[in-house]
Design brief:
The mean pLDDT is 87. The protein has helices spanning 2-19, 25-28, 33-40, 42-59, 69-98. The protein is an all-alpha fold. It has one domain (2-98).
């Protein structure tokens, strides 16, 4: 269960850093339009980040997802595709409720 949550948190963090975070604005503001449209979609980018996270875990020899070897290549991207939008929504709601850390000058 921890591996599944870790997988979804990693893909959501990559989604946020790749298309929303101020700290990486210098990068994502220069994306070509087709790439920007793909990475702005949390489900689409979650699929690709899920595939990348699965490949990275396998390359490091870590078995984070509790499934057999062939199925991990389906389950990993699926978790990214389904879990990333849900966790991104919760993050957005939390940010909206907390408000801005910067006081308005007006």
């Amino acid at each position: 269960m921890i591996g599944i949550l870790l997988h979804v948190v990693v893909t959501t963090a990559l989604f946020y850093l790749g298309s929303r975070a101020e700290v990486t604005r210098w990068l994502w503001s220069r994306y070509p339009r087709p790439l920007a449209r793909l990475l702005d979609c949390s489900s689409c980018s979650g699929f690709w980040y899920g595939l990348g996270a699965t490949a990275a875990a396998e390359a490091l020899g870590e078995r984070t997802l509790p499934v057999a070897a062939p199925a991990i290549w389906v389950i990993g991207p699926f978790l990214g595709m389904v879990g990333t939008p849900m966790l991104a929504y919760l993050h957005q709601e939390a940010m909206m409720r907390l408000g801005s850390a910067v006081a308005d000058d007006a």
